[in-house]
């Protein structure tokens, strides 16, 4: 009999792998569709999530181990059988709580359903040879770039780009390793509806353990499952958001009465935080180029009870004279390669290619150059990405400043509490000009720069 948990994990991975679906969206949709039908328990959902994110995260490493034992080239193996091998090897190598015999037997059972007559024998032969030593052996690879790539499951082109930016290989290894760790769940308290103390009490009553975040309005959750399914989320008491993403709103430093533009606002985490900071006492235009993404912003605005945000389908790369020098503050959290959030969205590293750099940086510069014209003299603009390449970040800013002498970089300033570490984010400020965070145990990777339009 085929195990329902591993079969559903297989279907989700297949959808992500073959149809380029986003891992978090595919996982949530399939769980929602099958939870009642398959009578899935929280334990089942936890294991499905573990397998799906684990296989997508470690695909390159898992494929290296398959190549070690398979006489058939990967591209000639059926996608179903290849993913069955990945699922089984992930369990053998990375999940101590699952016996190897169980991983092998379930893999063979799945191959009988999703392969042809000889598939089960092929799968069985490979899986019985696999052991944790296969992963340990990858650390013996002499070439450092290849070793980092295969032991951290990061494509070599990403490592090569970081090398071109003169980042030491030791630090590159650190960045790559931290791209695979299980991310912490952080939530932002909606101070329009509750307080941190009240929310902590509510969550404690639900047996959800919390601790203070680095920033004043944030909590870190311990062992939280399906946090967006609880009624307090639906009532708008909090937003799920990484703390470093929340920094963009704090560094923008909105004031009561400001007229603010968030030109790339979906799904609305940053733009709603701006509204919360000034207690709805401002006017915010929230744009996105796609109507469905604007609707995501509208859903969050409604859920959080925010009155100061007006949404609009608008392409930020197309100049509109009507917005010339209209805004006091502008946030540009521009589209990017997203390599700072790999631990949350591991599929990004397989969907993105080196060739994407030229196209994405062109879009980033166009948005900055055009939207800067919408800023009033004396106004401030924050440029940010959830990426880690200089070519998307400081290089864009320096090119813009070279061609726009009426702008200058502002020193990064923000206020936050000292619950965990005093001045935690200050150590990531470079030359008083940028905040460049590489993914670490606490936060995602992120870049933030603040610009002033001279009077």
Under the CATH scheme, which class of the largest domain? Alpha Beta
Average pLDDT confidence is 94
Rounded radius of gyration (Å): 23 Å
**SS-based class:** alpha/beta
Q: Can you tell me about this structure?
A:
The protein is an alpha/beta fold and 455 residues long. It has four domains: 4-136, N-utilizing Substance Protein B Homolog, Chain A (Orthogonal Bundle), CATH 1.10.940.10; 143-178, no CATH class; 185-240, Sun protein, domain 3 (Alpha-Beta Plaits, 2-Layer Sandwich); 243-453, Rossmann fold (3-Layer(aba) Sandwich), CATH 3.40.50. 46% of the residues lie in helices and 15% in strands. The chain contains 19 helices and 13 strands. The protein has helices spanning 4-19, 23-34, 42-57, 59-69, 79-94, 100-114, 119-129, 132-138, 144-152, 156-164, 169-178, 196-205, 231-234, 243-252, 269-277, 291-304, 348-351, 356-371, 394-403; strands at residues 185-189, 209-212, 218-222, 238-240, 259-262, 283-288, 309-313, 327-333, 375-385, 407-410, 429-430, 434-437, 446-453. The strands form two sheets. Strands 5, 6, 7, 8, 9, 10, 11, 12 and 13 form a nine-stranded mixed β-sheet that branches. It has a four-stranded antiparallel β-sheet with strand order 2-3-1-4, with helices on one face. A hairpin with a 5-residue loop joins strand 2 (209-212) and strand 3. Helix 1 packs across helix 5, helix 6 (100-114) packs antiparallel against helix 7 (119-129) and helix 9 runs parallel beside helix 11 (169-178). The longest helix has 16 residues, at 4-19. The chain starts with a helix and ends with a strand. The mean pLDDT is 94.
């Amino acid at each position: 009999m085929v195990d329902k948990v591993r079969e559903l994990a297989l279907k989700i991975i297949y959808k992500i792998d073959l149809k380029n679906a986003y891992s978090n969206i595919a996982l949530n949709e399939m769980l929602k569709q099958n939870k009642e039908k398959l009578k899935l328990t929280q334990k089942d959902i936890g294991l499905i999530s573990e397998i799906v994110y684990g296989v997508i995260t470690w695909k390159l490493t898992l494929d290296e181990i398959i190549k070690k034992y398979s006489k058939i080239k990967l591209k000639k193996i059926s996608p179903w059988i290849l993913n069955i091998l990945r699922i089984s090897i992930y369990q053998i190598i990375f999940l101590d709580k699952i016996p190897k015999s169980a991983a092998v037997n379930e893999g063979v059972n799945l191959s009988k359903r999703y392969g042809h007559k000889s598939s089960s024998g092929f799968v069985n032969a490979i899986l019985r040879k696999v052991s944790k030593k296969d992963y340990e052996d990858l650390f013996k690879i002499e070439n450092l770039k290849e070793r980092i790539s295969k032991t951290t499951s990061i494509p070599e082109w990403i490592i090569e780009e970081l090398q071109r930016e003169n980042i030491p290989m030791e630090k590159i290894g650190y960045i790559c390793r931290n791209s695979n760790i299980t991310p912490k769940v952080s939530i932002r308290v909606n101070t329009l509806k509750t307080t941190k103390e009240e929310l902590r009490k509510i969550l404690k009553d639900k047996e959800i353990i919390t601790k203070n975040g680095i920033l004043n309005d944030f909590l870190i959750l311990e062992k939280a499952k399906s946090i967006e399914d609880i009624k307090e989320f639906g009532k708008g008491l909090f937003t799920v958001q990484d703390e470093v993403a929340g920094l963009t709103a704090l560094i923008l430093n909105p004031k009561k009465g400001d007229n603010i533009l968030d030109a790339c606002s979906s799904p609305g985490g940053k733009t709603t935080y701006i509204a919360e900071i000034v207690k709805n006492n401002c006017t915010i235009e929230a744009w996105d180029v796609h109507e469905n993404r604007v609707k995501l912003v509208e859903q969050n605005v409604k859920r959080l009870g925010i009155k100061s945000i007006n949404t609009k389908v608008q392409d930020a790369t197309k100049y509109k004279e009507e917005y010339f020098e209209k805004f006091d503050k502008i946030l540009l959290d521009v589209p990017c390669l997203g390599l700072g959030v790999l631990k949350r969205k591991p599929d990004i590293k397989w969907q993105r290619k080196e060739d994407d750099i030229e196209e994405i940086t062109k879009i980033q510069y166009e948005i900055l150059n055009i939207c800067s014209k919408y800023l009033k003299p004396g106004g401030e603009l924050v440029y940010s990405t959830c990426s880690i390449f200089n070519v998307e970040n400081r290089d864009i800013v320096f090119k813009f400043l070279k061609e726009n002498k009426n702008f200058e970089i502002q020193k990064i300033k923000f206020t936050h509490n000292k619950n965990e570490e005093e001045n935690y984010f200050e150590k990531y400020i470079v030359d008083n000009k940028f905040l460049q965070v590489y993914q670490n145990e606490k936060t995602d990777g992120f870049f933030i720069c603040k610009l002033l339009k001279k009077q």
